[in-house]
Amino acid sequence: MTHAAEPDEELPAPSAQPTVRSPWRWATLALALVAVVATGVAVWALMRTPTDNSSAPTAQEVADAKGRACEAYVKVRTAVALQTQGAVGTDPAAAQAVAANARLAMSVGSQHLVDNLSPAVPAELAGLLRTLATDLQNLTINALAGTPDGDAGQVTRLRDLEANSTKIVEQCK
Asked: CA 99 to CA 142: how far, in whole Å?
């Protein structure tokens, strides 16, 4: 009689052969290790506080930056003056060409001012130049939208631009 806890058959004895390990197992372990290391590096990079390596500009860097910004201003002022004061006579096509060149000079000039600003430009001058660039853009877009030169808004914008320009000339001395 057999007991329910006893097996009916004898189990074969375990073989004495060692288990063959697949090369894929090592590759899997290596990939897992790389993933853990990469995750650790990513977490470290996200959690560390950045160091501020930027230092204040030297007096020479400030002078150079101011010189470039002021040179850009003079170039823009000259371009706008040349393109807005062309003699048109009575030819409507000539009047349109002068107006188009004036708008182009103001539009490109505003971008040129901003492009020539660097962090080393003194803050007051940089602010004045950004305001001038915005004023030029506002004049240009309103002119392109058909706002006449005598419009009260355009007159005010032009007056503000001229007042700002006077301050820039003083800063650039």
From this structure: 13
> Tell me: the pLDDT tens digits for 117-129?
999 999 999 999 9
* Residue 7 neighbours by CB under 8 Å, 6+ apart: none
User: Is the whole model's pTM more than 0.85, yes or no?
Assistant: no
| Boundaries of every domain in the chain | 59-171
Q: Which residues contact 21 (CB under 8 A, 6 or more apart)?
A: none
Half-sphere exposure of 4 (CA within 13 A, CB side): 0
DSSP 3: -
Nearest-CA neighbor of 71 among 108, 115, 12, 22? 115
What single string gives the DSSP state of each residue in 54-89?
--PPPHHHHHHHHHHHHHHHHHHHHHHHHHHS---T
Cα separation, 128 vs 81, whole angstroms: 19
Q: What is the pLDDT of residues 67-113, one digit of tens each?
A: 999 999 999 999 999 988 877 788 888 888 888 999 999 999 999 99
Task: Tell me the residue length of the chain.
Answer: 173
